[in-house]
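Supplementary Text 2. Reproducibility record for the structural model of the 176-residue chain.

All settings were left at their defaults, and a single model was retained for analysis rather than an ensemble. We include the record here because the model underlies the residue-level annotations in Supplementary Table 4.
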Amino acid sequence: MRAPLLHDHDPALEEILEKRAERARASADAEQTAATIPVAEFSSGKDRYAIPLSALRAVLPLKAITPVPGSPVHVIGILRFQGQLITVVSLMTLLGVKGWRHDCAVLLVVELEGGHRLAIDCEHIPRIEAMPQRAVEQARSRDRGPVYDVTTPGFQTVGFIDLAALLAQVLGATHG
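Retained model, structure tokens:
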């Protein structure tokens, strides 16, 4: 059932409304094709996290770790990757995540600026997704710490991990 129109048929008004509708459609289309950041998205506990895909170097089985006695609680051990020894850290411990659903099964080897590599534990192999760059930048300006809460176009909250800030936190916790 259509509501009755409260105005007479006015071609000028219809033209204005049609132009507004076109602009609204164009801005919605532009937002959908706006710049995105390719990410590797994964779960940790009941939360979802993402890292820039450009930083991901490998996904490896968790069994490749060598424990290091006396290391800090967030350090799981070390890993040999492409001839380098890499520190493996518990992402859940660093972020204070409690009550994960599954034991971690894989490691994500990530590379930061300057060539620093780090491996973080993960429950499952991550999915490749695209995050709106604008949403990430808004979250970065609003949040502090190594994780920014980004609201995706599907209205889900995903923690975008700033790997440089995470590394600084790891180094501070290890040396501080």
